Amino acid sequence: MQEKRDRTTASLLVVSFYIAAQMLSDISSLKIASVGSLPIDGGTFIYPFTFTLRDLVHKLLGKRAARALIVTAGAINVLMALFLAFVVWLPPDPTWPLQEAFAAVLGPVWRIVVASIAAEVISELLDTEIYSLWVTRVTERYQWARVLASNAISVPVDSLIFGWGAFGGTMPAATVWGIFWTNVLVKGIVTLVSLPGIYLVPEREQRAE
User: Fold this and answer.
1) What is the number of other CB atoms lying within 10 angstroms of the CB of residue 201?
2) Digit-coded pLDDT (tens) for 51-76
3) Residue span of the structural domain in which 193 resides
4) Any bridge partners for residue 41, and if so which?
């Protein structure tokens, strides 16, 4: 009974962190920063943690739950963008001087929003399939290997869809490719940092899905 309660608590925490990281990454992706001489969107610094968090959900709750979480997170991000657009649209109080700043910072840029959510859903669903194939067809041992294998494919796919979907045609091609490679590099580093997290939760009993 205690083990079941612990698993439930762990599942709630991991799902909550996953949704929070998705939302924060979508908001912060509106800023293009410069690290050294490399362009990078702000969401890159937190979004890669969602891949390991997704792996934890898969490990705790199974493949179907991981798929449902990915789609749900995408829907939540769409609703967040719509709500922010609504708040920006509301007429400001005459005594409030920050309408333009608020709109500039939090008003959704729909091309970036669509590219970000599409990249998240496609890459994370792909990550789910690769993770599942590794566990069922390769080995259940070496949990770090299943994380690396799934992220090695999903991270470049995510960066490619987001970079060109959000900025292709509006920025020089060299800048867009710079965003892509910087994204891949940073996400790869974060993957290595977050890799030990896969051992934080117990393995779910495998069932046919």
Assistant:
1) 19
2) 889 888 988 888 899 999 999 999 99
3) 2-200
4) 32
**Where are the extended beta strands (E) located within the chain?**
32-35, 38-41
Q: Which domain CATH number covers 81?
A: 1.10.1760
Task: Answer yes or no: is 205 within a domain.
Answer: no
For 86-157, strand residue ranges (E) read none
pTM of the model: 0.83
Facing residues of 96 across strands? none
User: 3-class DSSP state for residue 204?
Assistant: coil
SS3 state at 209: coil
Going from the C-alpha of 168 to that of each of 60, 111, 114, 190, 192, the distances in angstroms are: 38, 10, 13, 25, 29
Whether residue 172 has pLDDT greater than 50: yes
Residue 57 tokens, joined: 């959900």
- Determine if residue 169 is left, alpha or beta; phi over 0 gives left, psi from -120 to 50 gives alpha, anything else beta: left
Residue 207 lies in a domain: no
In a domain, 118, yes or no: yes
Q: Count the Cβ atoms, other than its own, within 10 Å of residue 166.
A: 24
* Confidence check: pLDDT of 30 > 80: no
Give the chain's domain count: 1
Task: Report the alpha-carbon distance of residue 115 to residue 41 in Å, rounded.
Answer: 13
* Closest residue by Cα to residue 70 from 197, 192, 158: 158
Q: Residue 41: which residues within 8 A CB-CB, separation 6 or more?
A: 28, 29, 30, 31, 32, 33, 162, 166, 179, 183
